[in-house]
Each structure stands twice: as structure tokens, then as C-alpha cells.
């Protein structure tokens, strides 16, 4: 007979083949943590066996086809099992089968209610999972939990809903458990110092490296400071108040400026009335300039030794009187250039230097 | 036109008309001296500031934004200086001992090497003052120069005075406008310590004989507070206490030729008030050379003659110094020598 019941029946029988607890699957983490470890291992054992079976039968589109295929193989194996007598012989009635199926479904469900509801009509993949679930359900029963069955089987009328709910709660429970575990790990790692949750051996290495870096930084900082100090050498910040020396210097500068301005006012006020355009006035201007120049030279020779300001006449040189400064001589540098010319300059130490005329000669000095 | 949108939107920029600085002074007919201020080698922070301050000091006849690269040698500067009419170089450099400043006349002129014992930046000076003063067009005109204490008659001192006088353009007494004389550079030589004080001041004219309040009122156009006074005459005739610097004004009074602004009228007495701006340096003349960083040594502070210098130069040409050594082996030699000299003396 080929119907669902038989198929499940055969399934269940086949499930007994693998001894409990042998096969531990690698994918335990995908599934919510079960209270019963043994049940989990049994589930896994069944999983591997189930995969084998499905591969043997090939891809079956419709449940019916697979049933047929399975039936064949199961028939052959059924006899073998009976003869070998390995494992317990447990007889399951219809209710039990349903229970197994339900449990398998719960176990495999990923919290998707829709999938659970429309399970049977789905193509290949889901069928595979469906069969797996059944297998798991049987496995669990194959263990020592026969007591639970009647309880669960009672509330089986509303299949999908009740199946889903416990699945969801189980998943939620698993999540909660996982969360608790994760939190405890994090707490532990937070207690570690800066280095974090790492192995103690590496901790030492990292600590060493940090210490090295710190010492390097210190060295660099000191080197930088030294460099800065060298750069700042000679740089002083002036004080807020006026030093006596500063006051003296300001006084000297002021005297120079005053001299200059007085000379300017003298020269310019005399010129005020004259118009430079007219030729007649120009002669007067020229004359006045000459006089001013000579007088300036004369006064400079007698002026105080401290200050010398740069006041320049317009650069005309009058040849009648030999100027006191050697480069102003007409025959400067034309005669043999001996040191005695320098001596001549020394005779008039307090001279105000008549700057501009020297300009041409300084280039000759080279 | 989304496709051809050019990323650089060309904004209309009004061309800046720059006043061309003539090469020749109109009045005297002489060439206006121009200068380059640059550094030899990489300078630390404060010295770079000092270089900037010196550039501002030499305005307007200097290159304010002169860009120098590490690979530029003295020859490069010389090549540029010729066509541009630059007559003087001011070079800053640094060794472990102290910073140095060289003043040289191009193209073959003498070089004066000064050791900068102490210096303060313009920003330091401004911070130390209560009311720092920098009017807008302070640097539009060249400064005056005052040399003091150089009259002892020694050769190198004379050369120093000539050099510094020639760095700044001449002033014609007859035609100069007093409003254009706004800055002054002071070089004061101290015989005992052989140190030269370098200062930079701004000139301000204030009318004498006018009480402070009235002067401020006229200058600032701020209406005074007459709440507590009975009569305007109180405001005018009230004797306010003078500041400490006003005592010296007697010696500093000048009679102006022309009007300078509202406050300083012609033919009335005005006082000259100086306020320090700009860098402050204490220099020591270390060496005078004939050529531009080369040539025979005319004067050397530490007594090393010309012959010794020649010997040392050959030895130290191989060594590397802080400065780039493109084609200035002799210059490097100078620097090395200075180090050794200073090392010996210290």
C-alpha cells in the first residue's frame, strides 16, 4: 500500500538504523539550542541518514513518486532490520506518527509560518525538509522521551497553529539563550583592559610594542623641543615699558628728524615765493641752493659729534672750495690711490655724510 | 549648456593698476637703489618672520613677495638683479651659534656680515605697546635713515655708513614733502660694546601748545562730553595733566612749512613723536669682504687675516653646511669659517 501513513511508517523504521548519538552534524549552530543534547545528536544522526536516502531516490517532484521510491528501498531494508534485530523495536500508531511529524517540523522551522502552512504543496526542496523533519521527529521519539508524546499529541488538532507556536517559542527561547550567552562573553571581554579579549601571550607582545611607541614618542618630542629652542636663539620679546636705553635711542632719532625737518623748512620756505618755471627765479633758486649747501657743510663740520643725519643737497658740487670729504674731491681716485686719502677722511670725523655724492664713488671702490 | 560648462568661471577682475616705480629718481637724477631680502638656507620660524619684517622695512623699493627656492643660488639672484636694477642684497642665514645678516652691494660690491645678537619681531614690538600704530600708507614711501655714533673714523665703520646710506634713496631737502617722511631707521653704534642698535620708528607730528583734549577732538571728530561743565571755556582752558613724553617735546618741535592734515598747520610749532614699529635688532659687524660674499677680507672682527681665510676655504669646500651648495662653495666656506671662528672664540 502506498500512502502517507505507510511511507511514514517505513520512515520511522528506517530511522532506527543509525545508533543514537553517533553522528554529530557540523551545522548545529543553525538550529536553536535544544535542552536535550542527546536529542540534538540524534536529530543530526538522522539528518545524515536522511540525506543519503533522498540522494538515492533522486529528486522527486511529487510526494507520491518518492513514496514509491522509498517504499521500494524500505521494503528491502525492512527485512534486513527485522533480521538483524539492532535497536529497539517500537511500534507507532498513527497518533505517534503525527506527533513525530509535528516535532520534526518544529525543529526545522525557521520561524516562517507560511512555509509551515503550505508545506505539502511545495516543490522539491521543501519536501526534502519535510522528510527530514519527520525523521527528526522520529529520532527524538526513538530516544527516551516516550512520556511526552501523549501530551503533545493531544493538542494536535489545530495542526499548523500549534506546530508553529511552539516552533516560534522555541526559536525565541533559543534566541534568548543565545543572547544571554553572548552578553556574558561580551561582559567578560569588556573587563579586559585596553588590549581587548586576546590571548595572554599576545597581550605581552602588544604591551611591549605600546611601551616602545611611547618611548619613541618621548624621544621625538624632546628632539622637537630642542630644535625649537635652537630656532628661537637670539629672539627676545621686548618689554612693555620703555627702557632707558630705548628712550635714549628714540631721543637720538628724534633729534635727527628734527634736524631734517628744520632744514627742509628752511630750504622750502625760502623757496616759497619763487616760481620754478620762470627763469629769473630759477637763478635765484640756484644761488640759494648753493649757499644752503655750503652753509650746511660748514655747520656740519662744527656740529655735535653725536648725530649725523642724512640730508642731501641736490648733488651739485661747487668746485671753488674743496669739500671736506675726500670723495668729493675732484681728483678723488685719480691720483694714486693710497691710504693717505683715507687719512684725509679721518681729519673730519664729525662730518655729516653728504650721502648722495658718495653713491657714484662707492661703486668705484670695488 | 550643461556639457560645456567650464569649471573655472572666469570672473571679471579689474586689472590692478600698479604704480610703476621708476628706476631713476626724478629729482636727483640718480638711480634709485632697490634691494632683495632673502635667506640662504632654511630658516626657522622666527627668522622667517624677521625676513618678512625686513622686507616691509625696505618697501617700496624691494620685492615683497620674492619667492626663493632651495635650488636658487647666489648666481641666480645676481642674474635677476641686473635687469631689474637691484642694487643691494640683504641675506639672512643661520648657524648653530646665531643668525647672521649680510648686506651686499651688487654686482661686485663689498659685503658686510653682521652677527645678529638679539632681535625682536615687529609683532613682538606691537604686542608690547599699548597703542600700536600702523597707518594705512605707512610703507608707501621709503624711510629716512639716521646713523649715529659712527664717527670714530675706522674704515669699516665708514664703509658701513656709506653702505646703509646708499640702501635708501636720497632725500632732496628742497623738494621733499614732509608728509612723505613717515618712517625712520636708526642705526646707533656703541663704541664700547661694538654693537649696532637697529631700530625702526614711525614719525608722527603733533601740534604743540594745544591741550590734549582739544587735539583729540580735532583729530577724531568725537564730540566731547560736556555734561559736567558749565561753559565751553571750561573745556578749552582746562589744564589736563600731560603725559610723560610731553616733557621732551620742547626739544622736538619743528616749524612746519606746509599743512599736514587738520592738526598741523604751517608756521606753527609741531612736535615730532616717534613710535617704534618694525623689527629691533642688535648687530655686530663681523666681517667685511671685497666681493659679493667672496674676495679678500677687508676687516674681520676676530682678527683672522685674508691669508688664513684662503687656506681655510679650500679645506671647508668639501664639507656640507646648512646652506645649499649649488655653486656657492665660497659662500659655504664663509659660513663654515664663521662657525669655526665662533667656535674658537666661544
From TrEMBL, chain A:
Residues 64-79 have a biased composition (Basic residues). InterPro entries: Rrp15. GO terms for cellular component: preribosome, large subunit precursor. GO terms for biological process: maturation of 5.8S rRNA; maturation of LSU-rRNA. Residues 123-132 have a biased composition (Polar residues). Residues 56-79, 104-159, 343-366 are annotated as: Disordered. Residues 357-366 have a biased composition (Low complexity). Belongs to the RRP15 family. This is RRP15-like protein.
From TrEMBL, chain B:
GO terms for biological process: ribosomal large subunit assembly; rRNA processing. InterPro entries: Brix, PPAN-like. Pfam families: Brix (PF04427). PROSITE patterns: BRIX. Residues 317-346 have a biased composition (Acidic residues). GO terms for cellular component: preribosome, large subunit precursor. This is Brix domain-containing protein. It comes from Trapa natans.
Amino acid at each position: 500500500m502506498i500512502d502517507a501513513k505507510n511511507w511514514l511508517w517505513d520512515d520511522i523504521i528506517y530511522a532506527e538504523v543509525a545508533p543514537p548519538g553517533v553522528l554529530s552534524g557540523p551545522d548545529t549552530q543553525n538550529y536553536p539550542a535544544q535542552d536535550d543534547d542527546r536529542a540534538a545528536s540524534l536529530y543530526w544522526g538522522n539528518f545524515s541518514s536522511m540525506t543519503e536516502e533522498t540522494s538515492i531516490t533522486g529528486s522527486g517532484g511529487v510526494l507520491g513518486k518518492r513514496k514509491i521510491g522509498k517504499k521500494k528501498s524500505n521494503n528491502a531494508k525492512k527485512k534486513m532490520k527485522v533480521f538483524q534485530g539492532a535497536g529497539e523495536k517500537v511500534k507507532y500508531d498513527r497518533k505517534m506518527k503525527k506527533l513525530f511529524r509535528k516535532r520534526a517540523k518544529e525543529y526545522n522551522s525557521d520561524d516562517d509560518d507560511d512555509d509551515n502552512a503550505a508545506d505539502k504543496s511545495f516543490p522539491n526542496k521543501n519536501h526534502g525538509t519535510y522528510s527530514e523533519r519527520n525523521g527528526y521527529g522520529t529520532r527524538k521519539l526513538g530516544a527516551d522521551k516516550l512520556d511526552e508524546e501523549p501530551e503533545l499529541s493531544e493538542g494536535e488538532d489545530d495542526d499548523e497553529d500549534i506546530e508553529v507556536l511552539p516552533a516560534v517559542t522555541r526559536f525565541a527561547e533559543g534566541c534568548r539563550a543565545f543572547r544571554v550567552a553572548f552578553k556574558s562573553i561580551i561582559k567578560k571581554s569588556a573587563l579586559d583592559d585596553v588590549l581587548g579579549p586576546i590571548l595572554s601571550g599576545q597581550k605581552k607582545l602588544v604591551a611591549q610594542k605600546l611601551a616602545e611607541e611611547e618611548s619613541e614618542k618621548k624621544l621625538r618630542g624632546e628632539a622637537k623641543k630642542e630644535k625649537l629652542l635652537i630656532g628661537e636663539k637670539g629672539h627676545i620679546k621686548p618689554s612693555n615699558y620703555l627702557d632707558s636705553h630705548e628712550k635714549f635711542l628714540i631721543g637720538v632719532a628724534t633729534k635727527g628728524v628734527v634736524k631734517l625737518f628744520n632744514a627742509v623748512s628752511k630750504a622750502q620756505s625760502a623757496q616759497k615765493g619763487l616760481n620754478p618755471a620762470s627763469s629769473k627765479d630759477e637763478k635765484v633758486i640756484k644761488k640759494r641752493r648753493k649757499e644752503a649747501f655750503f652753509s650746511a657743510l660748514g655747520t656740519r663740520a662744527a656740529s655735535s659729534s653725536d648725530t649725523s643725519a642724512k640730508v642731501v643737497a641736490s648733488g651739485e658740487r661747487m668746485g671753488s672750495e674743496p669739500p671736506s670729504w675726500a670723495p668729493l674731491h675732484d681728483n678723488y681716485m685719480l691720483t694714486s690711490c693710497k691710504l693717505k686719502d683715507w687719512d684725509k677722511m679721518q681729519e673730519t670725523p664729525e662730518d655729516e655724510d653728504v650721502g648722495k655724492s658718495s653713491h657714484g664713488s662707492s661703486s668705484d671702490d670695488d | 549648456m550643461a556639457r560645456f560648462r567650464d569649471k573655472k568661471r572666469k570672473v571679471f577682475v579689474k586689472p590692478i593698476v600698479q604704480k610703476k616705480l621708476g628706476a631713476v629718481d626724478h629729482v636727483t637724477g640718480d638711480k634709485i637703489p632697490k634691494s632683495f631680502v632673502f635667506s640662504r638656507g632654511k630658516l626657522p620660524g622666527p627668522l622667517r618672520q624677521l625676513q618678512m619684517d625686513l622686507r616691509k622695512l625696505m618697501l617700496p623699493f624691494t620685492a615683497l613677495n620674492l619667492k626663493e627656492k632651495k635650488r636658487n643660488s647666489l648666481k641666480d639672484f645676481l642674474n635677476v638683479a641686473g635687469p631689474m636694477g637691484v642694487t643691494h642684497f640683504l641675506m639672512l642665514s643661520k648657524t648653530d651659534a646665531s643668525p647672521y645678516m649680510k648686506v651686499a652691494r651688487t654686482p661686485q660690491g663689498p659685503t658686510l656680515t653682521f652677527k645678529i645678537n638679539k632681535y625682536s619681531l615687529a609683532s613682538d614690538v606691537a604686542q608690547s605697546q599699548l597703542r600700536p600704530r600702523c597707518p594705512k600708507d605707512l610703507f608707501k614711501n621709503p624711510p629716512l635713515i639716521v646713523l649715529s655714533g659712527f664717527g670714530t673714523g675706522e674704515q669699516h665703520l665708514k664703509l658701513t655708513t656709506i653702505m646703509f646710506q646708499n640702501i635708501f634713496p636720497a632725500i632732496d631737502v628742497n623738494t621733499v614733502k614732509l608728509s612723505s617722511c613717515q618712517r625712520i631707521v636708526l642705526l646707533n653704534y656703541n663704541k664700547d660694546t661694538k654693537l649696532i642698535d637697529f631700530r625702526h620708528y614711525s614719525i608722527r607730528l603733533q601740534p604743540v601748545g594745544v591741550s590734549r583734549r582739544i587735539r583729540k577732538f580735532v583729530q577724531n571728530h568725537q564730540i566731547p562730553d560736556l555734561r559736567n561743565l558749565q561753559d565751553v571755556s571750561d573745556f578749552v582752558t582746562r589744564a589736563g595733566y600731560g603725559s610723560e613724553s610731553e616733557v621732551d617735546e620742547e626739544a622736538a618741535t619743528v616749524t612746519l612749512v606746509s599743512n599736514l592734515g587738520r592738526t598741523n598747520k604751517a608756521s606753527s610749532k609741531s612736535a615730532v613723536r616717534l613710535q617704534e614699529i618694525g623689527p629691533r635688532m642688535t648687530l655686530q659687524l663681523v666681517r667685511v669682504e671685497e666681493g659679493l660674499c667672496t674676495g679678500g677680507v677687508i676687516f674681520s672682527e676676530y682678527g683672522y687675516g685674508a691669508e688664513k681665510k684662503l687656506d681655510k676655504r679650500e679645506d671647508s669646500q668639501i664639507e656640507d653646511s646648512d646652506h645649499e651648495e649649488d655653486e656657492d662653495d665660497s659662500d659655504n666656506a664663509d659660513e663654515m669659517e664663521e662657525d669655526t671662528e665662533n667656535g674658537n672664540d666661544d
